[in-house]
Amino acid sequence: MRFEPPMTPTVTSTDASGFPQLVRSPLAFARSAPAFTRALAAAQVQPGGELVVPANLSASLSGSLAPASSVAPWSASVQGGQTLSGIVREQMAQRGVNISNNEAMRLAQTVARANNISNPNLIHPGQSLNLDSLNLTLLQAQSANKAIAANSTSVNSNPNPSAPSALSGTAQVQLLSRVDRSNNPVLEKTIDRAIEKGFIPAQDKQAVMNKIVQLSEQHRFAPDDFARLTLMESDGMNPKASNSSCHGIIQFCDGPDRGAASAGFGSNPKAILGHSVLKQLDMVGKYFEDTGLKNFGPVGLDDLYLTVLTPAARNETRPNVALNIPGKQAAYLHVNRDTRAPITRNSILAGLHQNANERLGTEVAQRMPMQAVRLSAYAAQAAVSEVR
């Protein structure tokens, strides 16, 4: 350990507020900033909106966090039926970063500005999009993912899994909290509500949060969307929710090749009700694996919900076409909440958002003012698809 030489502060003058101004030691400025900080400070905004770091600086950085000018151009071509936020989520996922619907819509605004698109809801098949403006967010997220992975590796390789691993586990919980929790307001409020209702023990809050984030990464869906799903299916993670034939937080249903059988309770589905939310989340993971959810990723709220409701209906991808969903369903899921009307992907999206807002109150709705953008984008793209 090397200590810096002592220095006696010398007052040379006072500032406008009357506080003394001190002479600073040159050593106060001797330490270089971390690579990412230096890169961010030196980055120059180009006319297209992308950030470029001068080549002489990027070559000197020890890490690969800076969006150097040598990075290959990032672009995508719009396909029929796509939305701008959907393209952002898909492109980020292809690079190993899963983002929430809210984050995708925020980044879609950034992409729109960089491409001089006045209305992010109106993009057209064949249109070319420059996505270089996503580089900084991508690199930040990749850095966070590497930190989590490195910490996980450290925990798994620990030869003495007693006290030290407990400390490592705590560190990972804190890291997950910083990286993911603040970006999932619907999930956090749903869990808080579940605790108030007695569905989840208060001491399990962080474990439930982390488990859902882990599942979202494995199966490529947004944690907030999972919260909306449970608010419809079980009043928000009620492990004892049942309608006599379906049970638990996502309503594992009776019958062969259905949810209860996938979770290992085909012979006694009601036994699911005796398990905690944490245990049922393990069953959810098994069910999502069996139904191939991650093959549809990045998974939107509609595909996530259809995986639980009727997996076969995922084959119909048009947003305004009636889905083949048997049985009586909640009015929220039907077009205009009219049970005589069909259920479509758009009506599912609208119903799940509305149900979540009504159950959680206006606070979450106010924190997510962009949620209607995706719905209108679906409608706009449906019109474009029909023209083609």
Q: What form results from the Cα inertia axes?
A: globular
Task: Give the proportion of residues in helices.
Answer: 40-55%
Tell me about the largest β-sheet. 2 strands, antiparallel
Number of domains: 2
What's the number of extended β-strand segments? 8
Tally of helical segments: 15
Distance between the termini: 69 Å
Structural class: mainly alpha
N-to-C SSE series? EEHEEHEHHEHHHHHEEHHHHHH
The poorly predicted ranges are: 1-9, 22-34, 58-70, 161-181, 365-388
**Sheet with most strands: strand arrangement:** 1-2
Strand content: 5-15%
Radius of gyration: 25 Å
Mean pLDDT: 75
Structural commentary:
By secondary structure, the protein is mostly helical. It has two domains: 36-139, no CATH class; 140-155 and 166-387, no CATH class. Helix content is 47%, strand content 5%. It contains 15 helices and eight strands. The strands form four sheets. The protein has a two-stranded antiparallel ribbon with strand order 1-2. Helix 5 (135-156) runs antiparallel to helix 6 (163-179), helix 7 runs parallel beside helix 9 (223-234) and helix 8 (205-219) packs parallel to helix 11. The longest helix has 22 residues, at 135-156. The protein starts with 10 loop residues before the first strand and ends with a helix.
